[in-house]
Design goal:
It is globular, with a radius of gyration of 27 Å. Helix 2 packs antiparallel against helix 11 (about 285-300) and helix 13 (about 330-340) packs parallel to helix 15 (about 370-385). The strands form four sheets. An eight-stranded parallel β-barrel has the order 1-2-3-4-5-6-7-8, surrounded by six helices. It has a four-stranded antiparallel β-sheet with strand order 11-18-16-13, with no helix packed on it. The protein folds into four domains: about 25-310, Aldolase class I (TIM Barrel, Alpha-Beta Barrel), CATH 3.20.20; about 325-435, Conserved carboxylase domain (Cyclin A, domain 1); about 525-605, no CATH class; about 610-680, RNA polymerase II/Efflux pump adaptor protein, barrel-sandwich hybrid domain (OB fold (Dihydrolipoamide Acetyltransferase, E2P)), CATH 2.40.50.100. Helix content is about 35%, strand content about 15%. By secondary structure, the protein is α/β, with parallel strands linked by helices. The chain is built from 23 helices and 18 strands. Helix 5 links the parallel strand 3 (about 100-105) and strand 4 (about 135). Bound molecules: cobalt (II) ion. Cobalt (II) ion binds next to loops.
């Protein structure tokens, strides 16, 4: 097509009755998946999608992305929603627009390669439940990881969209690894696999406008499938990048409805519709209809999510991403992780170490799950390495990567790091070179046996096979065997209004409702007095635990028995229910100033005390217990793995600090633990 997109602008209207453009730009809307995944931690609920679904179906999108990526995980873990049900529900509202999902190749919607039998059944059931287009990517751009899913996608009659993860090692396209030839080669490989369309997946917003022009032109000239651009807004370049891509002849672009747009999400749709109005790339969309959808979202839906927006900064773009090439989601994960570990001051060090770790791990693109793998390993290096020893705490996922379980890295992994990571690795110390899933044993039958009758259908079984710990928890809730925790329930607009009132009160200093002296509770024999010093002020504060004797007494050393009681006390995860006794040290019990109410996740539990005898295995970070490798009474050697905890989806094997006998095991699989909690004691 010509480079000139301008045509005569005659009488224009905003409605749908404009003449069809010569090379109409097609649009995929991402609001209902990547939009809330990028801006609102993937917390979008189905009930907040249905109010606009029918109107969105009328717009004329090429597709709407509604599933995959992190939604599957987040829904069952944090929202108490069955991911499969979302597909079926939305399908009732979207009667003509095809559904698209993000499929992480052999990682499906999880964070590791699953066995072929799981991958095959997953794709089949996903089509059964209403999926039309599989946007398929592999974090390493190793298309051997597509070999299982693609034939199933094709057999089911669905659309196979192959992705090339866009990555750089230089400021611009080029260099030895990610140059134009690299992308053309990858596109041809996808075409050979039968791709119906090819997507450039620019997850960190690194694609610069002129590079996009060059890249899209080259792809249009070299391969036949439709070319699709997915470019995040993080760095601020994306609207310009899309425009140059449109001029270069891109067939489809990804956008979001305005309330779900910009920041780490995608460019908004509406400015494109207006900019292209009356040109040969006119979308043909009805701008008034879009405005009505935005209105509903803005007034009735988004107030419920506003608190999830990262509002720590005024800027809505982050040009730092161009320097460290970290996708937005990964960055906020790193910030959260460091904050929970009281190490936010280490952020600069983490960003400095990150390119080094990436290079040592094979210069891989940074996208889920490699962004987490590289990110968490970097955090571990910064927090736990000593001047004498690097990679002191290697995550299980880095070991898998070094073994070849994710596929072939862009450049070889640093041999020293690889050797260290694979020392004692249970699959063997010699890395593999074949297609990763080839070494994976089938998983379905094992999963079926384990979960038994709790899985009623294949959808349940897949949920369990992909996420054994949280998936089982969800199924217990789904079938009424376990209560759905309050924290998983949705909030209403009324809740939001009440919260806003509280914040307003707090700002005016009226939050603490004064209790009249005649209503004071009686001081018990357990009341203790603390000296509290706050910036030059001194307070003497009496602290009396509500509801009986404190579990831990402050002055005397805790005995092993009380430590065990404290550590196994119920549900340490949800802050509001955390036993107060553990908040005794002055820091936590200082009189709360009249500040805005903190979200539950910000509250922290103080570390459980160490036992008086024996060597404790402490959680070095907050996380969830995956499994204990040792039980009480087992013999253990120093350095042997006692327990595996998951932090930010990465598994960390915690070694025994001493040789001896496991005296106590204080948690069980699925329990949340805080940093410093004693997970086991060795004697
Ligand atoms: Co994305």
């Amino acid at each position: 097509m010509s480079e000139h997109t301008q045509v005569e602008m005659t009488e224009m209207n905003y409605g749908k009755d404009r003449p069809e453009a010569e090379h109409r730009l097609m649009i995929e809307d991402l609001s209902l998946r990547d939009g809330h995944q990028s801006l609102f931690a993937t917390r979008g609920r189905t009930e907040d999608m249905t109010p606009v679904a029918e109107r969105m179906d009328e717009i004329g999108f090429w597709a709407v992305e509604v599933w995959g990526g992190a939604t599957f995980d987040t829904m069952h873990r944090f929202l108490g929603e069955d991911p499969w049900q979302r597909l079926r529900t939305l399908k009732k509202y979207f009667k003509k627009t095809p559904f698209s999902m993000l499929l992480r190749g052999q990682n499906l919607v999880g964070y590791r390669n699953y066995a072929d039998d799981v991958a095959e059944l997953f794709v089949k059931k996903t089509v059964d439940n209403g999926m039309d287009i599989f946007r398929t990517f592999d974090a390493l751009n190793d298309y051997r990881n597509f070999e299982t899913v693609v034939p199933v996608i094709k057999e089911c009659g669905a659309h196979f969209q192959g992705c090339i993860c866009y990555s750089l090692t230089e400021p611009r396209i080029g260099g030895d690894v990610y140059n134009l030839e690299y992308y053309i080669k990858k596109a041809k490989a996808l075409e050979d696999m039968g791709a119906d369309s090819i997507c450039i997946k620019d997850m960190a917003g690194l694609l610069a406008p002129y590079d996009a022009y060059k890249l899209i032109k080259a792809l249009k000239e070299n391969v036949k499938p439709l070319i699709h651009l997915h470019s995040h807004c993080t760095s601020g370049m994306s609207p310009m990048t899309h425009f140059k891509a449109i001029e270069a002849g891109v067939d489809i672009i990804d956008t979001c409805m305005t309330p779900y747009a910009y920041r780490t999400s995608h460019a908004a749709l509406e400015p494109f519709v207006m900019s292209l109005l009356g040109t040969n790339r006119d979308t043909g969309f009805d701008i008034n209809a879009l405005a009505r959808i935005n209105d509903i979202l803005e007034k009735e839906i988004l107030p419920k999510y506003k608190h999830l927006l990262d509002d720590t900064k005024v800027s809505i773009i982050d040009i730092n991403v161009l320097l460290h090439q970290t996708p937005g989601g990964m960055l906020s994960n790193l910030v959260n992780q460091l904050r929970e570990m009281d190490a936010l001051d280490k952020m600069d060090e983490v960003l400095k170490e990150l390119p080094r770790v990436r290079k040592e791990l094979g210069q891989i693109p940074l996208v889920t799950p490699t962004s987490q793998i590289v990110g968490i390993q970097t955090v571990n290096n910064v927090l736990f390495d000593t001047p004498k020893e690097r990679y002191k705490m290697v995550t299980a996922q880095v070991k898998d990567l070094c073994y070849g379980l994710y596929g072939k890295t862009s450049v070889p992994i640093d041999p020293e790091v690889q050797k260290k990571a694979l020392k004692g690795y249970d699959r063997g110390e010699e890395p593999i070179t074949c297609r990763p899933a080839q070494v994976l044993e089938p998983e379905l039958e094992k999963a079926r046996k384990e979960i038994g009758n709790l899985a009623v259908d294949d959808e349940d079984l897949i949920l369990y096979a992909l996420f054994p710990v949280t998936g089982k928890k969800f199924l217990m809730q789904k079938y009424g065997k376990e209560k759905v925790p309050e924290s998983l329930k949705p909030i209403t607009l009324e809740d939001v209004a009440n919260q806003n009132k509280m914040i307003e009160k707090a700002r005016k200093g009226e939050l603490v409702e004064k209790v009249k002296p005649e209503d004071f509770p009686e001081k018990s024999e357990y009341a203790r007095t603390f000296n509290v010093f706050i910036e030059g002020d001194y307070f003497e504060v009496g602290v009396d635990e509500v509801g009986g004797a404190p579990v831990i007494t402050y002055a005397t050393a805790a005995t092993a028995a009380t430590a065990a009681t404290a550590a196994t006390s119920p549900a340490p995860a949800a802050a509001p229910e955390a036993p107060l006794a553990q908040a005794l040290p002055v820091k936590a019990s200082a009189p709360a100033p009249t500040s805005a109410p903190k979200p539950a996740s910000a509250a922290k539990k103080e570390p459980a005390p160490a036992a008086s005898s024996g060597a404790p295995v402490k959680a070095p970070m907050p996380g969830m217990v995956i499994k204990y490798e040792k039980n009480a009474g087992d013999l253990v050697n120093e350095g042997e793995t006692v327990v595996v905890i998951e932090a930010m989806k990465m598994e960390n094997a915690l070694p025994s600090p001493a040789s001896g006998v496991i005296k106590s095991v204080n948690y069980k699989s699925g329990d949340s633990v805080a940093k410093g909690d004693v997970l086991a004691v060795i004697e």
